[in-house]
Amino acid sequence: xPCAASRLAIIxxxxxxxxLSSCAHDQQLVFISIEPDNVTITGAGLDVHYTALGHYxxxxxxxxxxxxxxxxxxxxxxxxxxxxxVATSGLGCxxxxxxxxxxxxxxPKADSVVVGRVTVNVKQPAGTxxxxx
Length: 133
Known about the structure:
By secondary structure, the protein is of the alpha+beta class. The chain has 1 helix and 10 strands, in the order αββββββββββ. The protein has one helix spanning 2-23; strands at 28-35, 39-42, 47-49, 51-57, 61-64, 69-73, 79-81, 86-89, 94-103, 115-123.
């Protein structure tokens, strides 16, 4: 019986130690995924609503951080993106343009900069822009 009691005490102590050690760490943002990806827009003044999903470790969790990241476009003259992840096509065209969502001080538990990326293609209807083929 004393042997069983000491085993039980060890099991309880180890369980408590593991539980307390995992609570001592803050949740950390590991990466950002953006949806939708690889969209093609034909025309000016059209919107795409992007969503940024933060993927966290310790404990693992995913949450919508769309309004907590900084959005940017690699070609803002062709497609701009606002602080809520709404991208609007302008005049002109381009392929594999990049939309990024970057963690900043507003993003929960982002100890370092984390960037999510997707591509977008912007076309114009045939005959409307001589620079676009």
